[in-house]
Specification:
It contains 14 helices and 17 strands. By secondary structure, it is of the alpha+beta class. The structure holds 2-acetamido-2-deoxy-beta-D-glucopyranose (NAG) (2 copies). One 2-acetamido-2-deoxy-beta-D-glucopyranose binds at residues 74, 89, 91-92, 194, 196. Keywords: Copper, Disulfide bond, Metal-binding, Oxidoreductase, Signal, Thioether bond.
Length: 609
């Protein structure tokens, strides 16, 4: 067993001890109930492990591991025409680092997420099959976590399943350890890409691209199926953290105790504090926290922009079109990956830890049970986005075989390694789960301009003449370091030169060539025609177009580590009555104390079909 695996288990042990210490506070009756529960968990665990070993043994007997059987992994989908899909090479698992230091004073942090017995040594039993719809297995309903605090029966099941997971041997594919390490494997570059045409050693990663939503849908799905299997309940469904509703914004109470608790969280963000979806890391001063009602309003306004107005096209919501090999590399997160995804990860994590562990860094995030509720909600928001933007059933966001045939590997509830393809992720209904419907208050949270548009126009003209007045340069070419706000005038390309199809063209602001010093987190906000002071600027203003958020450990190991951020601005320009202007003013407002480590190459406008 790798030393890092031992190290990872220490927190689980601490939690267990913590739980045991709390036990005597209950009544004698509860105490015995609890003891019996633990005993029954332990015995079911023993049966399970035995079963797994036996199964593994028999597969090995039937198909002795040989070099010929391992080639089975790498056949490519035929008929894709325009090249090979994106997939990991399971034979290439290697220790990786979370923070890659540029300078000697920053500590490199090696993480080894590889299983002790590599996945590449196991046969792929099959391609993923959807569960067959039958009356015996009704649709599993994922419910909002904040409404489950009184459902004792459900909480007992969920806690029991997690407890069994935590007690499995770390090497078992269903163990809590291995379940958490999946995130590390696929997000810190522990695998290289399996791509015959690509140069060797190009890391495989699923963040900041169009793979983000499909990958995490499968991850949460298999985790849920395994939890159900461990307690023999085929109807088990994970809850979701409904932070897009005011009542659901604090960390749900059910994640504050028992097996669902995690010690490594920011103490000042525990309930009843509402989540800050516009969270800026490094805001250590408690007095900075806005009142709850204001934070709630900010969250809803931000969600409107990131879910609706700024994300009218698939690429804007889901991320850039990543292709295999160094040449196909891209790094551009969708609006929802910047926030709520990244921002909520950072908000939950413990800021006193090196990388805001657990939730605030990719390699450790899934050690916190709250991870799965966070990602269940993102999965739900993907489904909501599809509904809002007219993608029904199996209609894909990108009709592109290279995306549709990209694949990953997961252990299913039977501990078989299965291959899953992006095309299977599209139609959520086929997985046999659904989300309990809740109100979407952010749909009505379309912000208002900070000042009347006519006044804003006069103010901008006056500023244009006054170069001392913080208008830094009237060019859209950087590079700039974001030590302070960068304001630039960006010319809009004439729309008439673009051939319009059936779909409406979206005007897109592209912040190009964003680079962040390795091992640093970073955040900046993007505003259009901002006339108020930076300190008064917030997502509650119509001028807010989006944000860029990077976690510390999310260092791109592709193409010089540069990224783009794209946000849709058509509706903003309409509301600001700037739709006819030749140019717009764009402000990149650094947030938090690390912006001097962030550089941007330029800003431009493109039209997206
Ligand atoms: C996977 O990695 C192994 C070991 O580096 C290599 O021999 C094999 O060619 C790779 N396969 C693909 C399809 O990239
Ligand atoms: C950024 O600012 C911090 C604090 O002011 C300073 O310690 C650090 O050296 C600066 N980094 C760069 C790259 O200028």
């Amino acid at each position: 067993m790798a030393t890092s695996s031992v190290w990872c288990f220490v927190p689980f042990f601490v939690v267990l001890v913590f739980v045991l210490i709390l036990l005597p506070q209950g009544s004698q009756h509860q105490h015995h109930g609890r003891r019996n529960q633990i005993l029954s968990q332990l015995s079911s665990k023993a049966i399970l492990v035995e079963g797994w070993l036996r199964d593994k043994q028999s597969t090995t007997d039937a198909e002795p591991a040989s070099s010929s059987s391992s080639t089975e992994y790498y056949y490519y989908m035929s008929g894709s025409g325009n090249g090979i899909p994106f997939s990991p090479n399971l034979s290439t698992c290697h220790p990786t680092s979370s923070q890659i230091p540029d300078s000697p004073h920053k500590k490199s942090h090696e993480v080894n997420c590889c299983p002790a017995s590599p996945d590449s040594g196991e046969p792929i039993v099959r391609d993923f099959q959807f569960p067959s719809p039958s009356s015996a297995s009704p649709v599993r309903i994922r419910r909002p976590a904040h409404r489950l605090a009184l459902d004792r029966e459900y909480l007992a099941k969920y806690n029991k399943a997690v407890a069994i997971m935590k007690r499995l041997p770390p090497d078992h594919p269903h163990s809590w350890h291995r379940q958490a390490q999946i995130h590390c494997l696929y997000c810190n570059g522990a695998y290289y890409q399996a791509a015959a045409a690509a140069a060797a050693d190009v890391p495989f990663m699923v963040h900041e691209s169009w793979l983000f939503f499909p990958f995490h849908r499968f991850y949460v799905y298999f985790h849920e199926r395994i939890l159900g299997k461990l307690i023999g309940d085929d109807t088990f469904a994970l809850p979701y953290w409904n932070y897009d509703s005011p009542d659901g914004m604090p960390i749900p109470d059910i994640y504050m105790k028992g097996e669902l608790h995690d010690m490594k969280r920011a103490t000042r963000h525990l309930p009843p504090a509402p989540v800050a979806i516009d969270y800026t890391p490094d805001k250590l001063d408690l007095s900075d926290e806005p009142p709850a009602a204001e934070q709630t309003a900010t969250n809803l306004a931000l969600l409107y922009q990131h879910m609706v107005s700024g994300a009218s096209k698939p690429e804007l919501f889901m991320g850039c079109k990543l292709r295999p090999g160094e040449d196909g590399a891209c790094s551009g997160m969708g609006t929802a990956e910047a926030a709520p995804h990244n921002s909520v990860h950072l908000w939950v994590g413990d800021a006193s830890m090196l990388e805001y562990e657990d939730m605030g860094t990719l390699y450790a995030a899934a050690r916190d049970p709250l991870f799965f509720a966070h990602h269940a909600n993102l999965d739900r928001l993907w489904a909501v986005w599809r509904r809002l933007h007219g993608y029904r059933g199996s209609r894909p966001e990108f009709d592109d075989p290279q995306w549709l045939d990209s694949h990953f590997y997961f252990h299913d509830e039977n501990a078989d390694l299965v291959r899953v393809r992006v095309r299977d992720a599209i139609d959520m209904d086929r997985f046999g789960y659904a989300y309990e419907e809740v109100d979407l208050p952010w749909l009505d949270a379309r912000p208002k301009p900070s000042v009347a548009p006519e006044l804003a126009r006069d103010l901008l003209r006056a500023k244009e003449k006054d170069y001392d007045n913080m208008l830094r340069m009237a060019t859209n070419k950087g590079p700039w370091t974001l030590e302070e706000t960068v304001r630039v005038q960006v010319t809009r390309p004439p729309k008439s030169t673009i051939k319009a199809g059936q779909e409406e063209l979206e005007e897109v602001l592209v912040v190009e060539g964003i680079s962040v010093e390795k091992g640093m987190h970073a955040k900046f906000d993007i505003y259009v025609n901002l006339v108020v002071d930076d300190t008064a600027a917030s997502p509650k203003l119509r001028e807010y177009a989006g944000c860029f958020v990077k976690m510390k450990g999310a260092d791109v190991a592709m193409k010089g580590g540069s990224r783009n951020m794209k946000v849709g601005i058509s509706e903003i320009l309409e509301d600001l009555q700037a739709g006819e202007d030749e140019s717009i003013w764009v402000s990149l407002v650094p947030r938090g104390g690390t912006a001097n480590a962030t550089r941007v190459d330029g800003i431009r406008i493109e039209y997206m079909q």
